[in-house]
Design brief:
Number of strands: 6
Strand order of the largest sheet: 1-2-3-6-4-5
Helix content: 25-40%
Order of helices and strands: EEEEEHEH
Structural class: alpha+beta
Strand content: 35-45%
Largest sheet: 6 strands, mixed
Length: 110
């Protein structure tokens, strides 16, 4: 497997997105700024038709977004997603949609 990376400019904010897909899931990092940073950690899993996500290290700025990304990755890869999310400030709905689409595009490359 290989690391899938992208730099995404959203409303003047720069995000580094790194995905490391595995046979049963994915490690994902979404980090605001030019340097990738560890952030809040969320784990998501698809079991049957249900999703479960849990914040291991909570994030006040993007907890819902991290869960959404994790559940989307878990569904696409039929497994476990571990998400690290580092934000400097809140995301608006438009920025969330753009970043989720960028993650989808990266997963299509694999």
């Amino acid at each position: 497997k290989r690391l899938l990376s992208s730099e995404c400019n959203v409303g003047g904010r720069v995000f580094e997105i790194d995905l490391f897909p595995l046979s049963n899931g994915c490690f994902a990092s979404i980090s605001e700024g030019k340097a990738s940073r560890m952030g809040a950690i969320t784990v998501a899993i698809k079991s049957g038709e249900r999703f479960t996500s849990s914040a291991l290290i909570p994030e006040s700025k993007g907890a819902i977004f991290a869960g959404m990304v994790g559940e989307m990755i878990a569904e696409k890869l039929h497994g476990i997603a571990v998400i690290s999310l580092y934000l400097r400030e809140e995301l608006d709905t438009s920025s969330m949609k753009t970043l989720i689409n960028e993650v989808r595009n990266l997963l299509k490359r694999d």
